[in-house]
User: Which sequence fits this backbone?
């Protein structure tokens, strides 16, 4: 290669990754000695606008290479793209981004996020752990406010979930009675896991067990408790240093709701019941009343017009949905299908929530790289300082799972660095990192080598992993979770994953928590990782170095003040590896190390300098 530049090399670009608005950015390109270079241009383009050309300055030689340098300052937040255009004695070339941040002739441009340094939430969760609870299935406590008043069945805790009703329809109307008091009763359990925030699936009144088809935003579902139950949970959790984050489902409501009222169960004049309903303009009717826009064509979740003034006031206004519940002391909101919400609606959600509590988190459900996300032909400015504080980090999940199975360190590092490079560090440290959610296969099943080809959903419902298969899966899961806990962001546990709860796709992955059948060894592993996060939380609020050495993966976390450094070493090869550990302490055993350590295949080591 005639030219050298790598966006991940601080000798080529400073500062690393996304850059705060108004901060100087330094670029350096080296040209191979002996090749006459007439000029090099840095071409920067704000997304959707024209190219801007900046001629780089020849500043001499370095290691027998010609050096071209430039400093630029970008004063407007936004998503930018850049590339290099060169004119040489060999011809003209354009270089973009190749693998691992290096130059690639005619490659795609590098992306560059310019963000507002004042636009993000203070990092009260640094070093924290999130625990996701599917409200109906975690734990059942005693609360006089709870009662069952639904079309469906209330099951015993150890009964199997329903995947389809006898008439061939899936209604998600089998319930187990997990409630808010049940969470209160298990706060000590969660505290022992290192949990600092509970993210709950929707808890507002609804006809389904998942409650993503909201019936009444102003009422807690009667099977979970009532408003006082939520207030007690928030207060009790806060005493233990745990925040409560609710799931905000604002793209659609339930057809069986106060607002649509298709089944006539509510004492309201719903949109389905007449065009003079105060809620009629909330929805998109195509052929009134039975043909209407709905989320993914699912008729029980009619899509809401987020531009409707009355709906916006209801969600965003004073004493509206966000105002009412945030004032109870919530730690934040996770926005369901955020890419279905228009930009201004997300902006206004943020404004309303932050007006109540500036430290409340706004997390979005995004499945791709959120810095370059396009939805409905619009670029989404999620991570530029005026919208989301973080996102659900599916790219990290995919990278970890791929690495555990395929063992390619270079691919893993590149996948991680792509996100690390594109997200502002303050955003990345606030993201939800996970191996499983209510929308995915259970973590233990993701890690198992059990063949489910040619099986039906009914077959998968009845599968229980054989002991040898589960033991292998558990070993992989331990490695995967250790990687998860080492990366920037907030490791997130889907309830039951920490005790080996099995399950394939929805709703099989939503079984009740197996309190009478927990894998204590796996649970101890999660607790150990939680203690490390808590004890060294300053290190997890800072930067990351990631590299491979002698086949071992190294992830080093450094606190912003450099007072805490912690290093994770992973052996994901098929052979045992040696690692020289000098003047350090094993964070799991708290024993000093000053010798060669053998890391068996699948094992990991967590160390800190001895005097820290």
Assistant:
């Amino acid at each position: 290669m005639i030219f050298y530049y790598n966006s991940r090399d601080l000798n080529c670009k400073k500062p690393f990754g996304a850059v705060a608005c108004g901060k100087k950015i330094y670029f350096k390109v080296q040209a191979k000695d002996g090749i006459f270079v007439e000029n090099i241009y840095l071409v920067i383009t704000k997304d959707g606008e024209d190219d801007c050309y900046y001629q780089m300055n020849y500043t001499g030689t370095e290691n027998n290479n010609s050096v071209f340098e430039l400093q630029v300052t970008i004063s407007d937040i936004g998503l930018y793209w850049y590339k290099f255009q060169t004119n040489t004695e060999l011809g003209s070339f354009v270089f973009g981004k190749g693998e691992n941040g290096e130059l690639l002739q005619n490659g795609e441009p590098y992306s560059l996020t310019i963000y507002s340094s004042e636009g993000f939430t203070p990092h009260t969760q640094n070093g924290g752990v999130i625990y996701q609870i599917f409200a109906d299935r975690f734990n059942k406590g005693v609360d006089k406010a709870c009662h069952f008043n639904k079309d469906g069945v209330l099951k015993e805790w150890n009964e199997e979930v329903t995947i389809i009703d006898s008439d061939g329809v899936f209604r998600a109307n089998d319930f187990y009675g997990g409630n808010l008091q049940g969470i209160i009763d298990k706060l000590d359990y969660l505290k022992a896991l290192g949990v600092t925030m509970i993210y709950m699936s929707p808890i507002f009144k609804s006809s389904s067990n998942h409650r993503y088809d909201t019936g009444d935003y102003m009422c807690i579902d009667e099977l979970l408790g009532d408003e006082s139950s939520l207030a007690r949970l928030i207060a009790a959790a806060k005493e233990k240093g745990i925040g409560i984050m609710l799931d905000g489902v604002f793209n659609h409501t339930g057809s069986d709701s106060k607002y649509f009222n298709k089944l006539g169960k509510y004492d309201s004049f719903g949109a389905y019941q007449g065009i003079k309903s105060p809620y009629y303009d909330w929805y998109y009717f195509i052929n009134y009343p039975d043909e209407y826009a709905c989320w993914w064509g699912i008729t029980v979740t009619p899509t809401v017009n987020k531009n409707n003034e009355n709906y916006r006031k209801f969600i965003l206004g004073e004493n509206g949905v966000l105002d009412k519940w945030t004032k109870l002391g919530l730690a934040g909101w996770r926005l369901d299908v955020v890419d279905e919400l228009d930009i201004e609606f997300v902006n206004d959600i943020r404004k309303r929530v932050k007006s109540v509590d500036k430290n409340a988190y706004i997390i979005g459900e995004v499945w791709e790289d959120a810095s370059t996300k396009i939805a409905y032909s619009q670029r989404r400015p999620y991570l530029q300082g005026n919208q989301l504080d973080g996102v659900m980090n599916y790219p990290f999940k995919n990278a970890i799972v791929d690495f555990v199975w395929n063992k390619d360190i270079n691919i893993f590092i590149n996948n991680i660095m792509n996100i690390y490079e594109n997200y502002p560090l303050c955003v990345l440290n606030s993201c939800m990192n996970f191996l499983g959610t209510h929308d995915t296969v259970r973590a233990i099943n993701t890690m198992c080598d059990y063949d489910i080809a040619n099986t039906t959903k009914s077959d998968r419902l009845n599968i229980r992993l054989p002991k040898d298969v589960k033991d292998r899966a558990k070993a992989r899961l331990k490695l995967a979770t250790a990687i998860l806990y080492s990366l920037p962001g907030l490791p997130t546990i889907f309830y039951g994953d920490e005790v080996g709860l099995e399950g394939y796709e929805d709703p099989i992955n939503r079984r009740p928590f197996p309190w009478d059948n927990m894998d204590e060894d796996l649970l101890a592993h999660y607790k150990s990782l939680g203690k490390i996060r808590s004890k060294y939380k300053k290190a997890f609020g800072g930067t990351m170095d990631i590299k491979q050495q002698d086949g071992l993966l190294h992830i080093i976390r450094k606190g912003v003040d450099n007072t805490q450094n912690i290093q994770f070493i992973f052996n994901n090869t098929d052979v045992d590896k040696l690692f020289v550990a000098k003047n350090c302490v094993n964070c799991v055993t708290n024993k000093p190390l000053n010798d060669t350590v053998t890391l068996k295949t699948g094992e990991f080591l967590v160390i800190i300098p001895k005097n820290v």
